[in-house]
Amino acid sequence: MHITGLIEVILYVRDMARQVAFYRDSIGLEITYPAGLADYSAENWVTFASGACRLALHSGGQERLGADTPMLVFGVDDIHSACQELQARGVQIGEVFSAAPGVWVAHAFDPEGNPIAIEQ
Known about the structure:
The protein is of the alpha/beta class and 120 residues long. It has helices spanning 16-26, 79-88; strands at residues 8-12, 30-33, 45-49, 54-58, 72-75, 97-100, 103-109, 115-119. It folds into 2 domains: 1-61, 2,3-Dihydroxybiphenyl 1,2-Dioxygenase, domain 1; 71-120, Roll (2,3-Dihydroxybiphenyl 1,2-Dioxygenase, domain 1), CATH 3.10.180. The strands form 2 sheets. The protein has a 4-stranded mixed sheet with strand order 1-4-3-2, with helices on one face. The protein has a 4-stranded mixed sheet with strand order 5-8-7-6, with helices on one face.
């Protein structure tokens, strides 16, 4: 077996419309399926273009989350300007810190409390 890479992260959500609005409007991801709807509240599956790995929101979870929820990490070119832009969009984002030499990170949460981060 040869793994070619991570192709998708599925995030189980309770409120699809709210989560779609967050990842589309606050984070700035483009919806790839189903694109162009005015209301996503009845959708069970919504995907976003997010680089080599697709982000999929799925409403079919049964809330059997483990102790640690996966963290979605989005790469950015300029972490300080990205933090300012996210704050302007209403996202409460933490302070920038060095996670390793040359690696800068800031943490936040989506509307359902899933951890997200931006990294430069």
